[in-house]
Amino acid sequence: MIPRIFLLLLLASLRPASAATPPPNIVFILADDLGWGELGCYGQQKIPTPNIDRLAAEGLRFTQHNSGAPVCAPSRCVLLTGKHLGHAEIRGNQQASVRFPEFKEGQHPLSAAATTLPSVLRNAGYSTAAFGKWGLGPVGSSGDPNSKGFNLFFGYNCQAVAHSYFPSHLWRNKERIPLNNPPIPGHAKLPPDGLSASSFQGQSYAPLRMISEAETFIASTTPAKPFFLYLAFIEPHVAMHPPADEVDKFPRDWDPQPYQGENGYLPHARPRAAYAAMISMLDSYVGRIRSALDKSGAAPNTLIVFTSDNGATHAGKPDSPFHIGGADPVFFNSTKGLRAYKGSIYEGGLRVPCIAHWPGKITKGTVTDAPSYFADWFPTLCAASGTTPPDGLDGENLLPILTGNPAPASRNPMVWVFPEYTGQVAVRIGPHKILRRGLKTRKPGPWEVYHLPSDPSEQNNLAATNPDLIAKAVAILRDQSSPNDIFPLAIPD
Predict the structure, then answer these.
(1) 223 FRET partner, CA 20 to 30 A, in 26, 50, 304, 473?
(2) Are 406 and 474 spatial neighbours (Cβ–Cβ below 8 Å)?
């Protein structure tokens, strides 16, 4: 007769490993144009962000995390395909109609052959849902969300439509959902003098519809099936027309002058207060998502990642005190001293806040200065979920860093090949970033080299004393830049 203790040990050994360690749920939160210094946990002094700060206090905060690109669509392509800009299909913000005139809305689509993170997770048994802004292919194209791995999508398919917070419609999968009649266009020409914030209000504020749908999705989940939830919120991308009661939470003396609309998008009587209100609302969504996870019982086994698709909004006309759409990153110290803004391969365009939270796996209140970027999340989330990643990914697995192991002494170079905004390329090799700008102009700029740990503001160009680094960067760019007829950019000498 087998002793009872040995029988129990035998039965335990026969149990599937997944019964003891179920794969985690994954919630990936992506802000839109949120600057590196626009959160309290990254030094922001004017805009309260208690929910995101709490996420950082209970998780891991990255200090050298970089986006996939300095603008929206290509950055999202890098994130969801795990291929850097030298290999990514989407390398710019081109509308689909340029190549596919049958589509009146949406950006150039991912191809049918493109493998995405949600498709890999769905094949591994995950329920997948996306809420927010897509930008990687029109409804009905090879790049629409349902074709790229999401069981459920609700939000803006098109980035241009997402310039309005009171749009005419959103999409639920392939169904067009009417929202505002009339809509409030994000580029309307309205006189700002004496204009109250309530003048910008429509019937339905799209972000509140999207966060409500996300809460409903979380409530519908069960422990028996893990889920991947992609929340691509649109804040704080302009145009600025948040609800009037949110604007009124911020000091009136912040706004001695209105934004007249001279840098595009809607004018606003209280632009600084409006911008702060959008970030404050973004913070509230993070709190609502965490509350929904708590109520559903999913929180203890959920990995949350929060980051932004690129840096803060770039400057407009030289004689305007405001940036594009009335944003004022100078007033808010949005880059915290980093050089440049959205659209640039300098740190102000690429370095973004990033926080990871995973109860029992990530030590509370930790900080890492390990360099990382969007291409890393595909292999990292595959590793966290126990899923085999596809071949050909450009990123590195960050799971050891998340779970408290020392960062590796070195990593693969990080690559950006960006044909827009005059044509720009950059490579990060160890502590150095090597870059060149103006490649599509008559007088391309020279190579620049910066030692980022000692010079994060990129003020001391070391190119003259580092020809070997430049040669190495050129070799990397040529080796890791596949041809792309839609978004071409020749690699310079």
Answers:
(1) 50
(2) no
What does the pLDDT look like over 129-161, one tens digit per residue?
999 999 999 999 999 999 999 999 999 999 999
Give strand pairing partners of 131: 154, 231
CA distance 13 to 452: 50
- Name the β-bridge partners of 62: 354, 368
What are 37-94's pLDDT values in tens digits?
999 999 999 999 999 999 999 999 999 999 999 999 999 999 999 999 999 999 999 9
Domain(s) of CATH 3.30.1120.10: residues in the chain: 414-479
Q: Find out whether 100 and 142 touch, Cβ atoms under 8 Å.
A: no
User: Can you name the CATH fold of 21-402?
Assistant: Alkaline Phosphatase, subunit A (3.40.720)
Instruction: Give the tens place of pLDDT for each residue, 327-377.
Output: 999 999 999 999 999 999 999 999 999 999 999 999 999 999 999 999 999
- Bridge partners of 229, per DSSP, are 27, 129
Q: Could you give the count of Cα atoms lying within 13 Å of 426 in the half-sphere of its Cβ?
A: 25
Give dist(CA 100, CA 109) in Å, integer: 9
414-479 fold: Arylsulfatase, C-terminal domain (3.30.1120)
Give the integer Cα–Cα distance in Å for 239 and 163: 6
